[in-house]
Amino acid sequence: MYAMNMADRGLDVNDFCYTDEILDGLEVFLSRERLGTYLVAARENREGAVRLHVWNTAVSAAFYEPLQGLEIALRNAMNRRLGERYGDAWYDNGRAGFDRGALERIANTRAKLARDGHSDDPHRVVAALSFGFWVSLLGPGGRMAAGRRANYEMTLWRPALRGAFPHRAPMTRRQAHRPLNVLRTLRNRIAHHEPIFARNLVADHERILDVAGWISPATRAWIEHHSRVPTVLKHAEGAGDIRF
User: Fold this and answer.
1) Is residue 131 exposed (0-12), middle (13-18) or buried (19+ Cβ within 10 Å)?
2) What is the H or E stretch that residue 5 is in?
3) Residue 4 forms beta bridges with which residues?
4) CA atoms within 13 A on the CB side of 193
5) Backbone phi, then psi, for 130, in 5-degree steps?
6) What is the pLDDT of residues 105-118, one digit of tens each?
7) Which secondary-structure segment (H or E) carries 181?
8) 3-state secondary structure string, 185-217?
9) CA distance 42 to 50
10) How far apart are CA 103 and CA 182, in angstroms?
11) DSSP 157
């Protein structure tokens, strides 16, 4: 299931005529290495592989919007709670007990803001920190500068971050981290234009909605209403034999 009818966007991938000349050119343009995963799934059928690549691009684009909505909601909720506990510039507060990885990401973010001619006020720093950074704060914590292990359970989760998910209580730190870490992987694959077609995309979409609902039911409803993912998946048609 991989050729998608996109009539609602004025495009039907099945209408494009793939001649051998076009396929030869696309194989060079996309690279044989990049097409490798698609070729295996399409049983070495070049046209099937290219159509699968088109579908993968379309579904990746559809996921961008709900992932963006979730990231903004997560960032704002976590920032509010950390600010209440450690101040607006919580990332500078040693009592938060950040590990070396978090401190490095914060430093790199501030350095990039400076290179781009921006101030590193809290609003800009918070907005520039990556999705992976926020997800990492829900993990157990790694090594600190002094060699000790950070304890995010005691310095971040219990005093602050569990309050970022008021509509899913009680909940443990691990229960918050697990689905978000899965979505972090999905987001990274999309950002790097990698295949996602073999994932359980229905479950991924539900995961986005579930976590958004833990933060704010209104946000979940808004994301769900505007998400194009169900439409893209619903309009997928069987146009080849994919080996997963």
Assistant:
1) buried
2) strand 3-6
3) 236
4) 5
5) -75, 160
6) 999 999 999 999 99
7) helix 173-191
8) HHHHHHHCCCCCCCCCHHHHHHHHHHHHHHHCH
9) 9
10) 23
11) I
